[in-house]
Amino acid sequence: MTVDDVPARDESLRRRTIAVISHPDAGKSTLTEAMLLHARAISEAGAVHGKRGRASTVSDWMEIERRRGISISSAAIQFPFGDTVINLVDTPGHSDFSEDTYRVLSAVDAAIMLIDAAKGLEPQTMRLFEVCRLRGIPIITMINKWDRPGRTALSLLDEIRDRTELLPTPLTWPVGEAGYFRGLLDVSTQRMQRFARTSGGATVADWDDIDAEEALASEGELWQTAVDEVELLQADGYEHDTDTFLAGISTPVYFGAAVHNIGVHHALEAVSALAPPALPRETSDGAQRAIDAPFSAYVFKVQTGLDSAHRDRIAFMRVCSGRFERGMTVTHERTGRPFATKYAHQLFGRDRETVDEAWPGDVVGLVNATMLRPGDTLYDAEPVQFPEMPRFIPEHFRVVRSADMSKHKQFRKGLASLDEEGVVQLMRSERRGDGEPIAGAVGPLQFEVFAARMEAEFSAPIRLDALPYETVCDIDADDAEVLGRERECEVVTRSDGRMLMLVSNSYRLRVVQRLHPDRRITILGGADAA
Ligand code: GDP
Question: Fewest C-beta in 10 Å: which of 53, 113, 332, 432?
């Protein structure tokens, strides 16, 4: 034991490392900004570069990236709230699912699922929710835009229960329906936060905290309805329970309107009081790295082009144990080589601050750390390796061709960088060789982001031609040649070395299986996988 041991435990207990997951336009930027305003981490609205008034398209997303909006450049924002220190890790703001999103979620200990009151659970909410479920990340639900006409609170709870199989346990309940919102009933205190609206979210909303008697006098039937509905729900077992929440069986539910700063305080309190602290992390050999062990961290995201003037490459690491001190030399587990941490930063909106120390749960950006890749482990003194991040089976495929042959070097460099970032997965096909790699993605929007970034950041314009593959299989390396000769099949090797066979569709696959009964062909996924 060293003198640092106790602080590591104390500091990690204060940490809440979370992400907000939502479908685009549910209000993630607005809520983020409102939380920062509320926690007084920023002093005016607009300090976080939001996306007001945009339509959610790829080009806008690229525009946001250029403007260094919050959803792209600040991988994590840290701010104190009460006795806790909240690390808010950003998930990419575009509507398609990407590997990058999954990697980011591997760095958090809890998530806020933000739902638009009028729309309920949308496709991207469901996908992100599913990732949280797979990773065992507890979820706090916030139903936003309650100032607008929308669905009833009860029908939204039903939808959460039916579609996520999480038991929704309301901790606040709206007084007045969506569109005629009077305030919130705090379920645990039975008091009401009655709102006086403010406009534009520029200031912290005015509200008075009144007791049940005064609420009844002021709101009459609306208050009584809220009280009755909560009672009914509780009688049916919809009650918050820490153990089921942490086990991913239930989700506490809050209501609000982020744009008016309504319910934002509750969201922050929920994070502070309910979300788990940084806990010991599982290592590759199935053991756990104790919080007070010497420093260790893993890289969950690598991003290039954050600062167009410098063409930076920043590796973001999450501290898993011990104390990180800027300047310390640690070991890069994959290569066994020393790694100096002179350029350690925390990013806040557009600004960078050097970070002098960090504790378990914190996110630190290491600038120009060219040797670091997502999934890498860094450690001090006691060797450790954290498990590799699982990869997705892509569902859409394109052949990548350079549109300007004089940009060969830039082309290769861009491909390597964006593959590493997880924007797309690059694969080498024996048939096509190195000059024409295949890009795979889970969502086709990724290809547009890929092409736009190749041109904007690497000056390497590309052409992408669709490939008609819908089924992805696992095969043995010895069979690659034979199977690769089949019609409507192509054998590729992903940049991580994994071999995959792409097949046009499941009918064709069945034919190929019949032609080669002795070869192992295991279906992994793809657009038409069962
Ligand atoms: P994101 O795509 O999830 O980051 O969503 P934004 O934060 O950009 O919000 C999308 C739109 O919804 C913007 O026009 C916001 O002003 C609006 N919005 C966000 N929260 C609320 C809310 O509580 N009530 C209403 N009426 N509009 C909201």
Answer: 53
